[in-house]
Here is the input.
Amino acid sequence: MRSPRLKVSSGGPSDMFGDLYNTDILSLAASLSDARLDSPCGTARAVSKLCGSELEIDLNMSGGVVSNIALRVKACALGQASAAILQEAIIGASGDEINTAHDALEAMLKSGGEPPTGRFEKLDMLQGVAAYAARHTSTLLAFKAAREAVEACAAKL
Here is the structure.
């Protein structure tokens, strides 16, 4: 059985494509489709100035947890994969869980921290991105936007 974790290489661009853009990542990226919610309680947009990736998220919350999500993603496969993981796991998540996942993902990418656990543990598939600083921002976009959308929902209460 293949491990979902990506190996970290010390090579150049050709290693990056083999390490990061594997079948699992590409399958996740391909699973997304653009959608909108009719009446979201929160909408947020995040953009990576470095690579031009963009993501918009609509959320609805009920009882303090996410009850519905819609995404519009224009990003590299890594940004799309991260967004797909978010979309798969966010229903039922609280704002605290989303914040914790964002912070753990950022630490995993930027300082060698442990991958997120719990409902967002699938983000461990993206550990290899840590070796490519130029890819960190696009990988974090979905969680950054989700945080902002949750804050927008909370502000309406």
Q: What stands out?
A: The chain has one domain: 13-155. The helical segments are 13-20, 23-30, 77-89, 95-111, 136-155. The radius of gyration is 15 Å. The beta strands are 42-47, 54-62, 65-74.
